[in-house]
Amino acid sequence: MDKAASIQPIPTLEAAEEKTVLQLVVQLLKRWRDVHYADSTFPPISIVLTTLAADIYRGEPLLSQALLLVLEQIVERLNAVQAIGQRLKVPNPVHRQEDFSERWNENLRAYAEFDSGIRKFAAAWRAICLGPGRPDRELERLFGEVVNPALVKQAARLQEVRERGGLGIRESGRIVPVAAALTPMLRNTNHGKA
Predict the structure, then answer these.
(1) Do both 180 and 136 map to the same domain?
(2) pLDDT tens, 68-90?
(3) What is the pLDDT averaged over residues 44-50?
């Protein structure tokens, strides 16, 4: 077979808005893993993170809620197996006899690092979701220095939509696209210096 015939083109990158909430949860889990375990030789493998997220996710519409649920459920599972003196197992959903996490059998340190790391991630994410103030520093600690530019870019996009009259407010006070809103959001008039 010709080598050139087997080479596949790189797929076009999808914007975050084009991805499902589950895809974004998995992406954040993997990004956290890459940052948290940067100096470790025992990062959790992608299939373990992906399988756990897919098994736990129940269709939450908000990324923050979905990630919180996934993290808290992983911690609950860790607590349940720890209570009976076992380790968390991540079976292949198609072939239940296959354990994606079997490498933890021979490497207890890798399992301990996963257990500790995911608990810290869950606690930090809960604080971000439920705490007051600006979470940018904590987000940067969890996901790396890409956070601040991403937040600035998101804020700029949101402001553009607001200036075009594309945002509104629901009764709950939540900002939503104008089509789903009870009241259109007023344009921002800045009277200070730019």
Answers:
(1) no
(2) 999 999 999 999 999 999 999 99
(3) 96
Written as one letter, the residue type at 95 is: H
Residues 75, 132, single domain; the answer is yes
Q: Are residues 80 and 162 in the same domain?
A: no
> At 194, which amino acid appears?
A
- pLDDT greater than 70 at residue 59: yes
Cβ–Cβ < 8 Å for 140, 130: no
Rounded Cα gap, residues 48 and 104, in angstroms: 11
Which domain CATH number covers 119? Answer: 1.10.1410
pLDDT tens readout for residues 114-162? 999 999 999 999 998 888 777 778 888 888 876 666 556 666 676 777 7
In angstroms, the CA 26 to CA 23 distance is: 5
- Split at pLDDT 50, 70, 90, the class of 34 is very high
In the numeric block, the tokens 């600690």 are attached to 141
Name the residue among 126, 18, 110, 24 with its Cα closest to residue 71: 126
CA distances 36 to 7, 30, 104, Å, are: 33, 10, 18
Q: What is the pTM of this model?
A: 0.72
Q: What DSSP letter does each residue of 117-155 carry, written as one string?
A: HHHHHHHHHHHHHHS-S--HHHHHHHH-TTHHHHHHHHH
In a domain, 7, yes or no: no
Q: Are residues 79 and 116 in the same domain?
A: yes
66/95 same-domain check: yes
